[in-house]
Amino acid sequence: MSTVMTMATMTITISTIVMMAATLISKKTHEEREKSSPFECGFDPKNSARLPFSSRFFLVAVIFMIFDVEIALLLPMPITMTASNVKSWMLISSVFLLILIIGLYHEWNQGSLEWSN
Asked: Its family (predicted)?
């Protein structure tokens, strides 16, 4: 039991010494305001967060995410065809594509895909 306790104490001591040495030896850089602040699409993060924001940017980002997920779901479909029943695969794929086409039509009809009015 004392051997395990000795090994644990040595491990903790050595790791503490290594961490302290790394902190002392590490190169400390003087960070500038621009380098230490996050880049948020050209907005200055040091100003007020209550600035008016165009909802068009948000809408485009949401539409991009929808189509990105769509591609991620569509790509494995041909691979899964060999491992499943062809009729059920066709039905599921057709329903999925129909839902996506109806959603695209709705976005187009609402004017979400037009950047300028």
From this structure: Belongs to the complex I subunit 3 family.
